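Example 3.2
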Amino acid sequence: MSTISVEGFLSQFSADDATFKLLSALSTAVPSSTEPVFYHSIDEARLLVAPELDDDGLERARARLNSPEYIQALKVADAIDKGDIGLSVFTGLRSAFAFFFGGRKKTLESDAQQGADAILKAAGIAWMTHRFYSGSPPEKIRKLRETPAGQSLLVWYAAADICLPFADDAAVGAGSFFSSLLSRYGTKHLNRLDFAAGAGAGEAATGMINGLTQPLEEIIQSVSGHTRGMAEKARAYLPAAIATADTISSAVATAADVLPVYRLLAARLAIEAALRQELPPQAEKPAPLPLPIPEGTV
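Structure, written as tokens:
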């Protein structure tokens, strides 16, 4: 595959790829969620997320993308997509697809495996937040939620890695489901992040993930009312190789090639974080994450 860089990651995608179409489809399946706009480079992204940024600021943002902090974070996203060094197993969409359209008994592994996988991906999100943004942990989380790519990342995680694969669990929409997963699997699995990002990454991610817990609970609770619509959308774009995979190994092998969602999300987040960090404070325009309205509410 391409080198570990924003340019290398983005070069794998186009607006017509199944990966981007699936990302867009899950966004539009959730009311009030913003559909992502595809771009090929930091120059195109600048027009969308930081049009006020001058040319000097653009060049500083471009330099950020090649910094060790950013490259470390991109390596974690790459590991998530490849199922590398035990950091991740497979996309939660595979088990969700089996549940909605083939019977729960056909899921690849138990909920325990899916739960551990979800926590490892949350650790990856926490690490990217830690590396891409400056400031205190609360400031970094605020900036993540104000960045369009950060919003896409959080909604994707809530939908694809929590709400869809655990759609049969009544506790998902109760407002404490992520906390229960973190309590059950966090201690054992968060330090595995060190293998992808270096010593101390698991500890740093733990501090960030604690701050992300409440925002994630809110998003998960909101998204949980739309699982059926999201599953229908996913079925239209889920690559057949993943939809019919019968084993963990075959799902990992195909997902690494045809559904590298976290590489796409990480590249977009890196670009948008770098751009927004170069804006003067008075030019920052918060874009709070729109929380979808659960079905059955007014």
